[in-house]
Amino acid sequence: MLEIQGVSKQYGSAVVVRQVRLQVGQGEFFCILGPSGCGKTTLLRLIAGFERPTEGRILLDGVDITHTPPYRRDVNTVFQNYALFPHCTVFGNVAYGLQVRRRPAGEIRERVDQALETVGLAGLADRMPAQLSGGQQQRVALARALINRPRILLLDEPLSALDKKIGEQMRYELADLQAKTGITFIYVTHNQVEAMSMAGRVAVMNRGSVEQCAPPAELYRSPATRFTADFVGSMNFFDGRIAEAGPDSFGILLADQTLVHRRGEAGARPGDPVVFGLRPEQLKVSLLEPRDFENGLFGRIERQVFVGDATLLRIRLSNGSPVEVRVPNYLVLENRVMALEPDEEVWVVWSQGSGVVLHD
Fold this sequence. Notes:
The structure is a single chain. By secondary structure, the chain is α+β, with helices and mostly antiparallel strands. Helix content is 25%, strand content 36%. It has helices at 40-48, 90-100, 105-118, 134-146, 164-181, 192-198, 216-221, 226-231, 329-334; strands at 2-11, 14-24, 29-33, 55-60, 63-64, 75-78, 152-156, 184-189, 201-206, 209-214, 236-245, 249-254, 259-263, 273-278, 284-286, 294-306, 310-317, 322-328, 345-351, 356-358. α2 (90-100) packs across α3 (105-118) and α2 (90-100) packs parallel to α4.
């Protein structure tokens, strides 16, 4: 439904958005994820019409809307600060768009009631914004945007001002709301948990460009670049070179001259430099040397950190590099990980099916 074709945005000599190409389908919950300053909000403003691209085109249902003003695009925006009118009631805030369009009073009342029911605010039409919690104000902003029945709803980090518990609740509510209305949501955030838990597809941005666009599980399991691997979740990185390559497995010679093995195709020739990445939960701590089907590196425990459902172990390898191991606490209780002391020598082991090989 929405096509972004080679869109760039430049302010003077600074290129904020660089040759972005994306397609968003009808009824999709699509997320743009990236760190502060990566260009994600600028891209959202380009879609909304608040900014004009330096080059490229934006199409909605095949129609070029690149230079169409915001009020003529079938697109509404929920801003980070909600932008509610403090002097208007909940009803007045939600009804504003319909009042500007001079819709009949009966229709306005019916559609406001329906919108408030949809976002779970039935019965609060006469409240003022100052009388609402942060989560309720966010719902008012959603109702105001939804009441005009846009083709696309743009959401610019709408949960960033909420505390953790309310934010978690609103994530589920937003996903349910999108499924219920069938409206295309394009959601911008720097929070990977928000992106991974709500979106059907996620575009990861870095320095104005899209690094990778894929479903959340694919981003996590098969990151295409080192930036994506590092930004989506946690990753331990090891520089190395392809040492040997067979049809079903290959070897990687790490910088410290340790040879590790990986099942699958190498995707590179012997001698080619690679980066080998391992998620903290793919690693285990052992007092025994690795077995035939395992890889292992020797080190010493530096620190243990309890994080609720897991214990994070920071281990300094014999080559001086740190690694992080995430051990679920049900395993911690069953084994003797909790009994391990700082400075104790251990093996960090992983199976030959674990890890990802990056060629950038």
